[in-house]
Amino acid sequence: MRKLTLLMHVSLDGYVATEKGGMDWISFDDELFSDVGSITKDADAALYGRVTYDMMEAYWPNAGKAPNATAHAKDHSEWYNRVTKYVVSRSQPKTGDRAEVIGKNLTEEVREIKSLPGKNIMMIGSPSVARDLIEAGLVDEFWLSMNPVILGKGISMYPEMNNLVKMKLAKSKTYQCGVIVLTYTI
To answer: Contact at 8 Å (CB) between 24 and 159?
Structure first.
């Protein structure tokens, strides 16, 4: 069975974006980029909500080709273009290469994807989709980048959770940029 890992940037007060979806408060450094790269090497599929997918699709397909592309941009762009992307949407959005729309019966579709042969599945962002998958017990690992900022308001990481979810801390790591990554398993 493939593992589903949820990667999410989070403010100290539990928000993943500003009220308007802004994420300019997120901190990164080269070591954090490198560690994210190690997770992507173990994944051959990505799961996105439609809004997150639209952001990714607008940037990553060509990010590695830019004249000033960083090593991270080159690596992540190559990974993005190679993997199968599952886009959760109730409508039929325009999708790019290697993308499939799912969402009519999200939990059953994700169970099926997890049962397919292959490497792990990486889910980036998409808090409302994450909530549904967490409540269905389909998220196996959380990779939370706690950013040293308090937003005060914004888009909640866990909007309207209905169930108590207990996790076990697998590891934590502090980065020079001030981010602490907390890795939890169910």
So the answer is: no
pTM for this predicted structure: 0.91
Domain 4-156: CATH superfamily is: Dihydrofolate Reductase, subunit A (3.40.430.10)
Tens-digit pLDDT profile for residues 134-178: 989 999 999 999 999 999 999 998 777 777 888 999 999 999 999
- Quick: pLDDT tens for 93-125: 677 778 999 999 999 999 999 999 999 999 998
**Rounded CA gap, 69 and 63, in Å?**
7
20 to 13, 15, 50, 69: CA distances (angstroms): 17, 12, 16, 28
Amino acid at 4: L
Q: Are 145 and 186 in contact (CB under 8 A)?
A: no
Longest dimension (CA), the chain: 47
Using left for φ > 0, alpha for ψ between -120 and 50, and beta otherwise, residue 103 falls in: left
| CA neighbor of 36 nearest in space, from 128, 119, 144 | 144
Boundaries of every domain in the chain: 4-156
Q: Where are the alpha helices (DSSP H) in the chain?
A: 30-40, 50-63, 71-82, 106-115, 127-135
Q: Are the CB atoms for 13 and 25 separated by under 8 Å? A: no
Q: Say which residues have a Cβ less than 8 Å from residue 20's Cβ, sequence separation at least 6.
A: none
